[in-house]
Amino acid sequence: MEKTLAATVQQADHARQNEKRVAYATIIGTTIEWYDYFIYAAIAGMVFNQIFFQPAGAGMATLLAFASVGISFLFRPLGAFLAGHFGDKLGRRAMLVATLVLMGGSTALIGLLPTYANIGVLAPVMLILLRILQGISAGGEWGGAVLMAVEHAPTGKRGRFGAFPQLGVPLGLLLSSAMLALMTGVVSPGEAFMEWGWRVPFLFSIALLFIGHWIRSSVDESPVFEEIKERKSASKTPIAQLFKHHAATVLLAALVFSGTTAVGYMTTGGFIQNYTTDPAGLLRMERTPVLLVVTFSALVWLTFTWLSGCWSDKFGRRNMYIVGFLVQIIGVAALFWLVNMGSIWTVLLALVLLSVGVGLTYGVQSVFASELFPASIRFSGVSISYALGSIFGGAFSPMIAAYLIGKTGSTVAVTLYLGAMTVLALLAALTLRDRSNIPLGPDHEAEQNRSPLWWKS
Q1: Total domains in the fold of the chain
Q2: Which residue, 25, 74, 213, 443, is the most exposed by fewest CB within 10 angstroms?
Q3: 269-304 pLDDT tens trace
């Protein structure tokens, strides 16, 4: 009796320790991934337009810099297909480690690149190739992190656990913005930042890579995948099965994601940073205060991402999306009205309002997607839906915004564009049923295979 009790206590203690490791692995890993990604996006509009694309002329160089941010999104589906295929066949944990190494290595190499002045056109070509590798990594990373978190979660706490990998995005934005504020304001202000200071945040990724690899390698494999492996029920062709039976769900989930990414990439894609600090623009604000404001807005995004995941366990995933998108519309409407006042305080207010709505929609994203797809093809479904949503929404939203302002001379068109993306995402969310707490294991594939589309029984 005593041995049985001791064994039970030991198992419970192991489970609690593993839950902590899962939380750390998903939060820290995704934070590092998105730090790498956002460092590029932020520096592209401030630096790369001048040192890699400058022969194209001021306006076109900025568009090309933002296009280099967006081009990586076109390769996210490739990363999602590869990670989804092998994640459904070989396991979630291996993909988490592989994508982290690919992202960290690519980021560090960007920090070592020679510029256009050194080697000519080869410099932007090499930059874009490394950006493509970042896109492949990002396309595969999210699905693995999400499933490790959600599939380890106790019943009734999936929303909370699903928020762990989501926290990596605002944390990555916070870390990257704080690093840039430090470099532009203290370590390498002015011309020193343009000459060498911009390289340091990329090279810092090497240290983060070792930390993330150590943590992710220590976590247990997803219990759902362990069951699949024991039963030898892994799908031989997960992607083919996904598109044969769940193509409409993939498309609608991608549209839901696109509403959050299009708006979120106004800061994570570097557009607001460039718009407010561009020496040739209307506002011409100082870089460091703007970066500090973005850092603070990332804290707001972080807070509401966590609250959204936790609240979804109580109020449902779909309801959180509805509330989040309605709040996001308010933030979109106020964004440029406040930013164009030209005060750092109105920029702060604008980004805080925007971050509340984005956080509310982003926090529920991972658990919502995980509950849409059957266990045997879940990695593929989650990863590909997210990758496509990133293309529909975030991929070129900074470039589209820059183009619309250049074409119209006003930010009104950008507000309409972001508003339309938010409304489209809200409508897509309304077409999908709430499947909160549906069993996730392979024993319940019949129930998981029932369509989540509201017009199907």
Answers
A1: 1
A2: 443
A3: 678 888 888 877 788 888 888 888 888 888 999 999
